[in-house]
Amino acid sequence: MASRSDFGRRVELALGSTAKRANIARAMYGLQHKRLAAFPDRAALESLRDAGEAIKRRALARLPELLEQLEASCRRNGIEVHWAETVEDANRIVLTILRGQGARSLIKGKSMVSEEMELNRALEHEGIEALESDLGEFIIQLAGEGPSHIIAPAVHKSRHEVSALFGRMFPDLPRREDIEGLCATAREILRRKFFAADAGLSGANFLVAETGTIVLVENEGNGRLCTTAPGVHIAVTGIEKLVERMADIPPLLKLLTRSATGQPITTYVNFISGPRKTAEKDGPREVHLVLLDNGRSRMYEDPELRDSLRCIRCGACMNHCPVYVRLGGHAYGTVYPGPIGTVLEPQRTGLDRLGELTEASTLCGACGEVCPVRIPLPKLINRLRFDAVRTDGGPTSGSGRRRTGREALIWQVWARVHRSPRVYRLWLALATRLRRLAPRRIAGWSDARELPRPAARSLHALARERGFCDE
Amino acid sequence: MSAPTLPTRPQAVLYFGTCLVDLLFPEAGLAGMELIRRAGVRVIYPADQSCCGQPAYNSGYRDEARAVAARQLAALDGDLPVVVPSGSCAGMLRHHYPELFAGYPLEAEALALSRRVFELTEFLVDVLALRPEDLGPPLKVAVHTSCSTHRELGAADRIGQLLDGLPAIEIVQPRHSAECCGFGGTFAVKQPAISAAMVADKCDALLESGADVVVSQDCGCLMNIGGALARRGAGPRCLHIAEFLLERTGGQPL
Predict the structure, then answer these.
(1) How far apart are CA B123 and CA B125, in angstroms?
(2) B3 located within any domain
(3) Same domain, residue pair B188 and B222
(4) Which of residues 225-244 of B touch A (CB under 8 A)?
(5) What is residue A3's predicted lDDT score, i.e. its pLDDT?
(6) Which backbone phi and psi does B211 adopt, to 5 degrees?
(7) Of A262, B58, B160, B232, which has the most beta carbons under 10 Å away?
(8) Over the range A429-467, which residues count as b (16 or more CB within 10 Å of their CB) and which as e?
(9) Percent of chain A whose predicted confidence (pLDDT) is above 70
(10) How far apart are CA A310 and CA A60, in angstroms?
(11) Are residue A343 and residue A440 in the same domain, yes or no?
(12) How many structural domains comprise chain B?
């Protein structure tokens, strides 16, 4: 076999980490169960999914004009809108805002777009401290890791590991092993930071074009603190988070929280509509919205790949993916793991570099079945496999770059055999007669399984013999 | 798109055996034909059939898939229902042929074919209303519903309806039974480590369930699960649902 790829090495590492695998599998089966319980009425779920899909489709169909409308509505509300084509642009914008405030520290709510930007690293490079305040993000920041799941970033860690980590990082605090105690420890550390931070940063779950509202769901209250306690609030998000109007939000919220964690609603739902007004006693003085493209416009241009942009980042596809359940997010080596990552990341980074991810799917359809906005994930994975080996130049970056002469030859020979009934029957006759010579092992397959021998008689031969044939 | 509905029971059907069954599991294919024939419907096995084209289609080689698929359109031409003893290949014919031929010369033919394709258990239940009479000994049976039959065809319940008619068997439910077994066609060869981890969990669950037999609509899953159980040297027999039904209802040995 060819030399092992980076992905192959990470897969090996992930599959060999027994404790981590158990943590992830337990959590994922738990989330599957919670989602199922949150949607007791199958018909109601399907009509809600129809509604969710329609809302996002409608918004995407008018994306360019809605983005302009959003900008105008935000400005009216006193939110300053910034456009970032690349992650470098986005980091520069955030940095400029922070420098303008003389800020030395930033407290962050959970934001996957900031992971896309690798914002923490960019800020630390400039001497600004970025502190994660979402418990899961706080844990992995301490551990020096990236998120392994988009809504549960530290899901791969057990409470004992977290306890040991806290013990190492905060030796002066009392050691706790229970979840409540660990939360209390984190809260004590973070509380002080919220009030000391010069600026707060958050993501956004939805943006409402009509009203210029940033909608942010969260369970810990850290999102509300990040967006209200410091003097400046910066929201970073992708351009696809847009919806037309406020009436679109309730169905999407219902879908998002139930699909993600099985909750009917999150503990906090924040509707952010601008900075502190003159008579108000609290809230940030400034609110900035940074809208990141980072490859999204390119996805938008292709009518099929555009469906990728409907994603509301609930994580249900990874919770239900049998590959993700066994690997966890780190093995993917990308910001977004699981089925949606398999669709987004090769488009963002190029099929030449990340095309192998599209092979890490059985196309079992579990992801598409649970997607709250009906993104046809298996179909998109299949489409990217096509782009990866097509010869006519596709729209996706790195199109055709995974085509190898050897594999192309295999499929050409395969097609030659199967498109000619005469040649195919000859192949059957040979394979059945020479069955004793058939290989007993196939690389990969035989690592875990026996290989069946060709039958003594093919179905073609048996059907003719039993009078089923049309000849 | 769910299974087609037919106004009356057809006089005859075309049977699409699939390449995997043709070469490796012909007795499963033959059992399906026998069940239909015993119900009084003529079964025609078009000699010019080979493979639905799915292996190439799922590997991104669409031109090669289309060339092979075009040949199946010719072999399965006409108005007769097409019965397929595999959810995966039936899903290819029903759902992916229209996509594969969209904007190509045979688009109309592909669409017409897609509307008369039945997965075998769909046909046995929906069209033939088969009520098998159980002649076999008591047995614990686990169902492995193939992902295509479950999610692509929405026909996972048919196999249970067939088994419900067999009073001597007890159906056992292995944990995470709706989860993929890790076959995925070329996936098993391209990502062997992940596939092996998946099928290992599937085997553990089946062994734990105490099943004597595992039945499925798809020989691909059975080849994977059966191959992994054989490597362990333990576990339930793996049988295609058609073979199992024929065996339970006193069909002639094939």
Answers:
(1) 6
(2) no
(3) yes
(4) 226-228, 230-231
(5) 55
(6) -70, 145
(7) B58
(8) eebbeeeeeeeeeeebbbebbbbbbbbebbbbbbbbeee
(9) 99
(10) 8
(11) no
(12) 2
Is A334 part of any domain? yes
A323, A389, A425: residue with CB nearest B60: A389
pLDDT at B2: 84
Chain B contact set for A442 (CB, 8 A) = 189
B12 contact A CB<8A: no
Chains A–B, number of C-beta pairs less than 8 Å apart = 213
Q: State the Cα–Cα distance between residues A87 and B37, nearest whole angstrom.
A: 64
**Interchain proximity B23–A327, CB inside 8 Å:** no
Nearest CA in chain B to A364: B147
- Whether A468 sits inside 8 A of B44 (CB atoms) is yes
Beta bridge partners of B171: B141
Is A313 in the same domain as A450? no
Helix segments in A237-287, DSSP class H: 249-261
Which of A359, A363, A386 is nearest residue B191 as measured by Cβ atoms? A359
Residue B120 lies in a domain: yes
- Quote the percentage of chain A above a pLDDT of 90: 97
CB neighbour list of residue B99: distance below 8 Å, 6 or more residues apart: A379
Show the domain range for B149.
132-248
Quote the minimal CA–CA distance from B47 to chain A in Å.
6
B88, part of any domain: yes
Three-class secondary structure of residue A68 per DSSP: helix
The predicted model scores a pTM of 0.97
Among candidates B23, B75, B224 on the partner chain, residue whose Cβ is nearest the Cβ of A454: B23
Last residue of a domain, one of A250, A272, A294: A294
The answer to whether residue B29 neighbours chain A at the CB level (below 8 Å) is yes
Give the pLDDT confidence score for residue A471 in this predicted structure. 57
Strand-strand pairing, B82-84 and B117-119: parallel
Do residue B60 and residue A390 have CB atoms under 8 angstroms apart? yes
Query: How far are the Cα atoms of A293, A309, B13, B18 from residue A115, in angstroms, in the given order?
Result: 14, 18, 56, 46
* Residues A100, A148 within the same domain: yes
Element (H, E) at A117: helix A112-117
Chain A residues in contact with B26 (beta carbon < 8 A): 455, 457-459, 461-462
Indicate which of A418, A432, A450 best probes the interface with B, i.e. most B CBs within 10 Å of its own CB.
A418
Last residue of a domain, one of B76, B105, B126: B126
What's the mean pLDDT when you consider all of chain A? 96
Question: Which ipTM did the prediction report?
Answer: 0.97
Same domain, A163 and A239: yes
Q: Extract the tokens encoding A154.
A: 């530290």
Contact B50 A421 (CB under 8 A): yes
Whether the CB of B77 is below 8 Å from some CB of chain A: the reply is no
Do A261 and A347 fall within a single domain? no
| B91 and B168 both lie in a single domain | no
For residue B2, give the 3-state DSSP assignment.
Answer: coil
Taking the Cβ of residue A283 and every Cβ of chain B, the question of whether any pair is shorter than 8 Å is answered with no
Contact list in A for residue B68 (CB cut-off 8 A) is: 414-415, 418-419
CA distance A168 to A160: 12
Asked if B70 and B174 sit in the same domain, the reply is: no
Q: Which of B89, B105, B126 is where one domain is finished?
A: B126
pLDDT in tens, B127-175: 999 998 888 999 999 999 999 999 999 999 999 999 998 999 999 999 9
A390 CB neighbours in chain B (<8 A) are 60, 62
The CATH number of whichever domain residue B163 belongs to comes to 3.40.50
CB nearest B68 (choices: A382, A415, A470): A415
CATH of the domain at A152: 3.40.50.10420
SS3 category, B139: strand
Minimal-distance CA residue of chain B relative to A14: B194
State the total domains in chain A.
Answer: 3
**Does the beta carbon of B81 lie under 8 angstroms from any beta carbon of chain A?**
no
